[in-house]
User: Fold this.
Amino acid sequence: MSRGRFAPSPTGRLHVGNLRTAMAAWLFARSAGSEFLLRFEDLDHATARREHEDDQRRDLEVLGLHWDGVPVRQSERLERYEDALADLTRKGLTYRCWCSRREIREAASAPHVPSGQYPGTCRHLTAGQIAGREASGKPPALRLRAEAPDVEIVDRLHGSHREVVDDLVLRRGDGTPAYNLVVVVDDDAQAVEEVVRADDLLSSTPRHAHLCDLLGLPRPSWVHVPLVLAPDGERLAKRHGSVTLLDRELLGDTPGRVVAVLAASLGLDVPEAEVMPHELLDRFSDDRLSLAPWTLSPVDLQTRWRRP
Ligand code: GLU
Assistant:
Protein backbone atom coordinates (compact mmCIF):
# COMPACT_ATOMS: atom_id res chain seq x y z
CA MET A 1 0.00 0.00 0.00
CA SER A 2 1.55 3.30 -0.97
CA ARG A 3 1.39 6.28 1.36
CA GLY A 4 1.14 10.04 1.46
CA ARG A 5 1.25 12.35 4.43
CA PHE A 6 0.67 15.80 5.88
CA ALA A 7 3.36 17.04 8.26
CA PRO A 8 2.35 20.29 9.98
CA SER A 9 4.39 22.07 12.61
CA PRO A 10 2.11 22.45 15.67
CA THR A 11 2.86 26.12 16.18
CA GLY A 12 -0.68 27.49 15.98
CA ARG A 13 -3.94 26.95 14.16
CA LEU A 14 -3.71 25.89 10.53
CA HIS A 15 -4.58 28.69 8.12
CA VAL A 16 -6.25 28.25 4.77
CA GLY A 17 -2.88 27.90 3.04
CA ASN A 18 -2.00 24.97 5.32
CA LEU A 19 -5.50 23.53 4.97
CA ARG A 20 -5.34 23.73 1.19
CA THR A 21 -1.98 21.92 1.18
CA ALA A 22 -3.46 19.29 3.51
CA MET A 23 -6.41 18.85 1.17
CA ALA A 24 -4.13 18.52 -1.85
CA ALA A 25 -2.02 15.92 -0.03
CA TRP A 26 -5.17 14.05 1.01
CA LEU A 27 -6.58 14.11 -2.54
CA PHE A 28 -3.32 12.91 -4.10
CA ALA A 29 -3.13 10.03 -1.62
CA ARG A 30 -6.77 8.98 -1.48
CA SER A 31 -7.40 9.28 -5.22
CA ALA A 32 -4.52 6.84 -5.73
CA GLY A 33 -5.98 4.49 -3.10
CA SER A 34 -3.05 5.27 -0.79
CA GLU A 35 -2.91 5.62 2.95
CA PHE A 36 -2.65 9.12 4.39
CA LEU A 37 -0.56 9.77 7.50
CA LEU A 38 -0.34 12.71 9.88
CA ARG A 39 3.01 13.65 11.40
CA PHE A 40 3.62 16.52 13.80
CA GLU A 41 6.92 18.26 13.17
CA ASP A 42 7.30 19.43 16.75
CA LEU A 43 11.06 19.69 17.19
CA ASP A 44 11.08 23.45 17.65
CA HIS A 45 10.70 23.64 21.43
CA ALA A 46 10.17 27.38 21.33
CA THR A 47 7.00 27.20 19.23
CA ALA A 48 5.55 23.65 19.16
CA ARG A 49 2.68 22.99 21.59
CA ARG A 50 0.44 20.00 22.27
CA GLU A 51 -2.67 22.19 22.31
CA HIS A 52 -1.89 23.30 18.77
CA GLU A 53 -1.76 19.64 17.72
CA ASP A 54 -5.28 19.17 19.12
CA ASP A 55 -6.57 22.20 17.23
CA GLN A 56 -4.93 21.03 14.01
CA ARG A 57 -6.39 17.52 14.34
CA ARG A 58 -9.82 18.93 15.02
CA ASP A 59 -9.70 21.20 11.97
CA LEU A 60 -8.56 18.38 9.67
CA GLU A 61 -11.31 16.13 11.02
CA VAL A 62 -14.01 18.78 10.65
CA LEU A 63 -12.95 19.22 7.03
CA GLY A 64 -13.17 15.47 6.40
CA LEU A 65 -9.41 15.05 5.88
CA HIS A 66 -9.13 11.82 7.85
CA TRP A 67 -5.80 10.08 8.34
CA ASP A 68 -4.77 6.47 8.92
CA GLY A 69 -3.26 5.18 12.14
CA VAL A 70 -1.94 7.18 15.04
CA PRO A 71 -0.22 10.50 14.23
CA VAL A 72 3.48 10.48 15.08
CA ARG A 73 5.51 13.23 16.74
CA GLN A 74 9.09 13.91 15.80
CA SER A 75 9.99 14.64 19.42
CA GLU A 76 9.36 10.93 20.11
CA ARG A 77 11.68 9.72 17.34
CA LEU A 78 15.00 11.33 18.25
CA GLU A 79 16.88 8.01 18.23
CA ARG A 80 16.21 7.50 14.54
CA TYR A 81 17.70 10.88 13.70
CA GLU A 82 20.79 10.17 15.81
CA ASP A 83 21.19 6.84 13.98
CA ALA A 84 21.11 8.65 10.64
CA LEU A 85 23.64 11.21 11.91
CA ALA A 86 25.89 8.40 13.13
CA ASP A 87 25.66 6.74 9.73
CA LEU A 88 26.68 9.94 7.91
CA THR A 89 29.47 10.56 10.41
CA ARG A 90 30.82 7.01 9.94
CA LYS A 91 30.93 7.69 6.22
CA GLY A 92 33.03 10.83 6.84
CA LEU A 93 30.21 13.08 5.66
CA THR A 94 29.82 15.40 8.66
CA TYR A 95 31.86 18.00 10.50
CA ARG A 96 31.34 20.21 13.52
CA CYS A 97 30.68 23.91 13.01
CA TRP A 98 31.01 26.63 15.63
CA CYS A 99 30.04 29.57 13.42
CA SER A 100 27.47 32.04 14.71
CA ARG A 101 24.83 33.41 12.36
CA ARG A 102 26.67 36.71 12.24
CA GLU A 103 29.97 35.04 11.33
CA ILE A 104 28.23 33.10 8.55
CA ARG A 105 26.56 36.26 7.25
CA GLU A 106 29.84 38.13 7.20
CA ALA A 107 31.84 35.32 5.60
CA ALA A 108 29.04 34.63 3.12
CA SER A 109 29.23 38.18 1.81
CA ALA A 110 32.72 37.43 0.43
CA PRO A 111 32.63 37.53 -3.37
CA HIS A 112 33.56 33.86 -3.92
CA VAL A 113 30.66 32.47 -1.85
CA PRO A 114 27.47 31.68 -3.81
CA SER A 115 24.53 33.51 -2.24
CA GLY A 116 22.71 31.72 0.56
CA GLN A 117 25.40 29.05 0.94
CA TYR A 118 27.49 28.24 3.98
CA PRO A 119 30.95 29.68 3.28
CA GLY A 120 32.74 26.58 4.62
CA THR A 121 34.61 28.25 7.50
CA CYS A 122 34.65 25.13 9.72
CA ARG A 123 35.06 22.58 6.91
CA HIS A 124 38.85 22.38 7.03
CA LEU A 125 39.90 23.41 10.54
CA THR A 126 43.32 22.40 11.83
CA ALA A 127 43.60 20.36 15.04
CA GLY A 128 44.70 23.54 16.82
CA GLN A 129 41.72 25.51 15.59
CA ILE A 130 39.37 22.72 16.66
CA ALA A 131 40.95 22.61 20.12
CA GLY A 132 40.46 26.37 20.45
CA ARG A 133 36.80 26.14 19.52
CA GLU A 134 36.22 23.16 21.83
CA ALA A 135 37.77 25.13 24.66
CA SER A 136 35.25 27.93 24.12
CA GLY A 137 32.57 25.59 25.55
CA LYS A 138 30.13 26.58 22.79
CA PRO A 139 28.29 23.46 21.53
CA PRO A 140 28.89 22.98 17.79
CA ALA A 141 26.31 22.34 15.10
CA LEU A 142 26.86 19.35 12.83
CA ARG A 143 27.03 20.01 9.09
CA LEU A 144 26.95 17.82 6.03
CA ARG A 145 30.20 17.65 4.05
CA ALA A 146 28.30 18.01 0.80
CA GLU A 147 31.05 19.01 -1.71
CA ALA A 148 28.51 21.17 -3.59
CA PRO A 149 26.85 18.58 -5.85
CA ASP A 150 24.38 19.84 -8.43
CA VAL A 151 21.31 17.71 -7.62
CA GLU A 152 18.27 17.31 -9.84
CA ILE A 153 14.83 16.27 -8.65
CA VAL A 154 11.67 15.73 -10.64
CA ASP A 155 8.45 17.16 -9.24
CA ARG A 156 5.08 15.96 -10.58
CA LEU A 157 3.88 19.52 -11.13
CA HIS A 158 7.07 21.53 -11.64
CA GLY A 159 9.09 18.94 -13.58
CA SER A 160 12.87 19.05 -13.26
CA HIS A 161 14.39 21.27 -10.58
CA ARG A 162 18.12 21.55 -9.75
CA GLU A 163 20.05 23.13 -6.92
CA VAL A 164 23.63 23.01 -5.72
CA VAL A 165 23.50 21.37 -2.28
CA ASP A 166 25.62 23.19 0.31
CA ASP A 167 26.96 22.09 3.69
CA LEU A 168 23.58 22.22 5.39
CA VAL A 169 23.11 21.93 9.14
CA LEU A 170 22.09 18.42 10.22
CA ARG A 171 21.93 19.07 13.96
CA ARG A 172 21.82 22.49 15.57
CA GLY A 173 24.17 23.57 18.34
CA ASP A 174 21.37 23.09 20.88
CA GLY A 175 21.16 19.41 19.87
CA THR A 176 17.97 19.65 17.79
CA PRO A 177 18.14 17.65 14.55
CA ALA A 178 17.42 19.86 11.55
CA TYR A 179 14.28 19.71 9.41
CA ASN A 180 16.18 18.75 6.25
CA LEU A 181 17.47 15.59 7.93
CA VAL A 182 14.41 14.56 9.91
CA VAL A 183 12.02 14.91 7.01
CA VAL A 184 14.07 12.43 5.02
CA VAL A 185 14.42 9.98 7.89
CA ASP A 186 10.72 10.13 8.75
CA ASP A 187 9.37 9.86 5.25
CA ASP A 188 11.48 6.73 4.81
CA ALA A 189 10.63 5.27 8.24
CA GLN A 190 6.94 5.82 7.56
CA ALA A 191 7.26 4.39 4.04
CA VAL A 192 5.90 7.58 2.47
CA GLU A 193 6.15 7.23 -1.28
CA GLU A 194 4.71 10.58 -2.29
CA VAL A 195 5.44 13.84 -0.52
CA VAL A 196 2.89 16.58 -1.20
CA ARG A 197 3.65 19.96 0.37
CA ALA A 198 3.76 23.69 -0.34
CA ASP A 199 6.09 24.91 -3.06
CA ASP A 200 8.14 27.14 -0.76
CA LEU A 201 9.95 23.86 0.01
CA LEU A 202 10.73 23.01 -3.63
CA SER A 203 14.17 24.63 -3.40
CA SER A 204 15.03 22.46 -0.35
CA THR A 205 14.05 19.24 -2.06
CA PRO A 206 17.39 18.60 -3.84
CA ARG A 207 18.89 18.58 -0.33
CA HIS A 208 16.42 15.89 0.68
CA ALA A 209 17.13 13.88 -2.45
CA HIS A 210 20.86 14.11 -1.79
CA LEU A 211 20.43 13.00 1.83
CA CYS A 212 18.32 10.04 0.65
CA ASP A 213 21.14 9.04 -1.69
CA LEU A 214 23.81 9.37 1.01
CA LEU A 215 21.75 7.40 3.53
CA GLY A 216 20.92 4.72 0.98
CA LEU A 217 17.18 5.46 1.15
CA PRO A 218 14.83 5.42 -1.83
CA ARG A 219 13.76 8.89 -2.98
CA PRO A 220 10.01 9.47 -2.66
CA SER A 221 8.18 11.29 -5.45
CA TRP A 222 7.42 14.96 -4.83
CA VAL A 223 4.52 17.29 -5.56
CA HIS A 224 4.89 20.93 -4.53
CA VAL A 225 1.58 22.77 -4.58
CA PRO A 226 1.38 26.55 -4.93
CA LEU A 227 1.11 28.76 -1.89
CA VAL A 228 -1.81 30.89 -0.83
CA LEU A 229 -0.88 34.57 -0.87
CA ALA A 230 -2.38 37.56 0.93
CA PRO A 231 -3.50 40.67 -1.00
CA ASP A 232 -0.09 42.26 -0.36
CA GLY A 233 1.54 39.38 -2.29
CA GLU A 234 3.11 37.97 0.88
CA ARG A 235 2.74 34.36 1.90
CA LEU A 236 -0.55 34.11 3.84
CA ALA A 237 -0.23 34.42 7.63
CA LYS A 238 -2.55 34.88 10.59
CA ARG A 239 -2.01 38.64 10.65
CA HIS A 240 -3.71 38.95 7.26
CA GLY A 241 -7.26 38.46 8.59
CA SER A 242 -9.78 35.65 8.83
CA VAL A 243 -7.57 32.79 7.79
CA THR A 244 -8.18 29.88 10.17
CA LEU A 245 -11.11 27.48 10.00
CA LEU A 246 -12.38 28.96 13.26
CA ASP A 247 -12.23 32.47 11.75
CA ARG A 248 -14.12 31.25 8.69
CA GLU A 249 -16.77 29.57 10.85
CA LEU A 250 -17.22 32.78 12.84
CA LEU A 251 -17.89 34.60 9.56
CA GLY A 252 -20.56 32.02 8.70
CA ASP A 253 -18.67 29.68 6.36
CA THR A 254 -19.51 26.02 6.94
CA PRO A 255 -16.74 23.38 6.70
CA GLY A 256 -18.31 22.20 3.43
CA ARG A 257 -18.13 25.73 2.08
CA VAL A 258 -14.47 26.03 3.02
CA VAL A 259 -13.75 22.71 1.30
CA ALA A 260 -15.61 23.86 -1.83
CA VAL A 261 -13.67 27.12 -2.07
CA LEU A 262 -10.31 25.47 -1.42
CA ALA A 263 -11.04 22.74 -3.95
CA ALA A 264 -12.11 25.26 -6.61
CA SER A 265 -8.92 27.21 -5.94
CA LEU A 266 -6.97 24.04 -6.72
CA GLY A 267 -8.65 23.90 -10.13
CA LEU A 268 -11.31 21.27 -9.37
CA ASP A 269 -14.75 21.55 -10.85
CA VAL A 270 -16.98 22.38 -7.86
CA PRO A 271 -20.50 23.47 -8.83
CA GLU A 272 -21.80 22.76 -5.30
CA ALA A 273 -21.85 25.47 -2.63
CA GLU A 274 -20.68 22.90 -0.11
CA VAL A 275 -18.85 19.65 -0.59
CA MET A 276 -16.72 17.17 1.35
CA PRO A 277 -13.34 15.87 0.18
CA HIS A 278 -14.49 12.27 -0.41
CA GLU A 279 -17.01 13.61 -2.95
CA LEU A 280 -14.13 15.15 -4.91
CA LEU A 281 -12.07 12.00 -5.36
CA ASP A 282 -13.31 11.07 -8.82
CA ARG A 283 -12.93 14.69 -10.04
CA PHE A 284 -9.34 15.04 -8.90
CA SER A 285 -6.43 14.80 -11.29
CA ASP A 286 -3.03 16.42 -11.06
CA ASP A 287 -3.15 17.91 -14.56
CA ARG A 288 -5.97 20.21 -13.36
CA LEU A 289 -3.78 21.76 -10.68
CA SER A 290 -2.63 25.29 -11.32
CA LEU A 291 1.00 26.23 -10.74
CA ALA A 292 0.09 29.82 -9.92
CA PRO A 293 -0.38 30.82 -6.29
CA TRP A 294 -3.90 31.58 -5.10
CA THR A 295 -4.08 35.21 -4.02
CA LEU A 296 -6.82 36.15 -1.57
CA SER A 297 -8.55 39.52 -1.89
CA PRO A 298 -9.18 41.85 1.05
CA VAL A 299 -12.87 40.88 0.82
CA ASP A 300 -11.96 37.16 1.08
CA LEU A 301 -10.24 37.94 4.35
CA GLN A 302 -13.16 39.80 5.93
CA THR A 303 -16.44 38.34 4.77
CA ARG A 304 -18.13 35.02 4.02
CA TRP A 305 -16.81 33.26 0.96
CA ARG A 306 -18.76 33.29 -2.28
CA ARG A 307 -17.00 31.82 -5.32
CA PRO A 308 -13.17 31.86 -5.51
N1 GLU B 1 6.45 21.04 8.75
C1 GLU B 1 6.52 21.76 7.51
C2 GLU B 1 5.54 22.92 7.53
O1 GLU B 1 4.66 22.93 8.37
C3 GLU B 1 6.19 20.87 6.31
C4 GLU B 1 7.32 20.04 5.94
C5 GLU B 1 7.04 18.98 4.87
O2 GLU B 1 5.89 18.77 4.49
O3 GLU B 1 8.03 18.37 4.45
O4 GLU B 1 5.68 23.81 6.73
